[in-house]
Each structure stands twice: as C-alpha cells, then as structure tokens.
Amino acid sequence: MPKIKVRDINIHYLMVGHGPDVVMLHGFLGNQAVWHLNIVPSLRRDFRLTSYDLRGHGYSEMTAQGYTSENMALDLKGLLDALGIQKPVLVGHSYGADVCLYFAYMFPDRVERVIALEPGLAALVEQRKDKNWIGWSYWVSKLEEAGLSVPPDKRSDVNYLLNLTLETKKIFGPARGLPRNRAPLLRLLNETTLMQDYEVVGVLTREAVREIRTPVFLIYGEKSHFLGSFEYLRDALPHCRWALLPGGEHFGPLEQPELLTGLFQEYLQGAGQRPAEPTARLAFETGGES
Hints:
- α10 links the parallel β7 and β8 (about 240-245).
- The chain has a nine-stranded mixed β-sheet with strand order 1-2-4-3-5-6-7-8-9, sandwiched between helices.
- The model is unreliable at about 270-285 (pLDDT under 50).
- The chain is an alpha/beta fold.
- The chain contains twelve helices and nine strands.
- α3 packs across α4.
- Helices cover about 35% and strands about 15% of the residues.
- It has one domain (about 5-125, about 205-290): 3-Layer(aba) Sandwich (Rossmann fold), CATH 3.40.50.1820.
C-alpha cells in the first residue's frame, strides 16, 4: 500500500504498466479501486497508469479542511512533482473530473489532455440547487428501490440524502449488494469541510472555463442527471470532444467499463498526436473536435 508525502499529507497511490503517463482521479466519496476493477487491467500494457485516493478518501490521509477543487488540483500537482510525472493525460470521474479541469486551467503546461467523465463543476452548482433538478428524483428513486423512505421535506437535502445513501448496499459494479464501509465516509461528510468546500468556485469560474486550452474529452451517460453541466462545458470549452454513452447514468466506470475502455484506448492512441475518431463498433453519440 504505497503512500507518498504530498503537501504535508500522506497520499495513497498505485502505479502500474509501461508507456505514456495517464493519471486517474476517482469521484466524490469514492476511491481509486473504481479504475482497477476493469479499466486499468485493460490499459496497463500500453500506458503507465497512476491512480490515487483523493485527500480524505480511501487510504489517503483525512484532514479537517482543504477539499476545494482548487486545493485538490494543488494536491495533484504535488503528487506529479513527487512522482516525477511531467505531462500526463488526466482522467477523472465526477469530482475527480472537476479537479482535472481546475488543474488544466491552473497548470496548462503540465497536462497533455483531459478525459472528463461526468464533471459537475462548482461554478455550475446552482443548477443542482433547484428543487426541480432531475438528480433529486433520481436519487430518491434509488433510495426507495433500496427500501428506504425519504420525507418530502428532505428530497432535495443533499446532506440528508448522502447520509441516508451510506445506509444502502453498493449499487454498481462487482461489489453490488455488499455493505459499505460507512464509518470513514461519515467522518469525511460530517467532520470535515468537504461539503462546504465542494461548492467553492475559486479560480475556475464559468467565464474561466472558456480559457482552458487543453484538449478535453467530455463523456457523460445519456441519462445522466449532470447533462446541464455537459451542455455548458460542451459549448464553453475551446477544444472539446464529447460522447454520450447509450443508457448510461452517472457511474460509467462501474456501469459501462468495457465501453469506456474502448473509448480511452482510441482517444489515447499516440500521446501527443491527433486522437483517433471512435470506430463504428462503439456506436454512440459523439461530437466536437477530433
């Protein structure tokens, strides 16, 4: 279980494979295992893959504060410096994708390109504060499928829903049906500034998104409740490719790992070269720059 000191905290990471560097960031309340179930084993023959647990997540050190996307981008830079990684491709899911976009804005000379799966972005959080946001009904329906009831006045209360979610068994992937390790996640939610920090916009405002010059490949599920973010980012990012995964929701690395792996392999062909177009066998809606 290798750890390395980054900005005075211990970060748990794994590095496997050989080839151009790809660094992978997991999502909110997740850990790096999401990449190792299916995607890393398929890519490690062609790339050197580094994944890590974000601050406070998995086996990385939990701090009382420091969870803004901007500060997480500084953690990422510290990790790259400590490991001697100069200019990787960054792959992030959800909160991890947000961090990748912040990093591309803050340190454009340190990133080759970005694959961003389902970023929400703090600058767009107002979309998700609307009581009519589609994500609330989706979330409540998943809890009700698990046998839990949500009072009407709590159906758009993110703290309540997160804590209730931790009472359910895992929903996606090979661990589906297994109980969650609730204790560290409850600590992270209730004893740190994670929830407040998640909404801090910092340097990457809506306007600043338009200044990101790094090529970005946006990937969302066609049934994602973050499609409002997709639409804004698709139109705002200067060098953007995009794909909508058929039938996909928010958790692509667990829902459709084989499809994502195919996408990654084709997009990553030849580091520093023009990325290839997806082949017909992948057959999903794509657009933007090639």
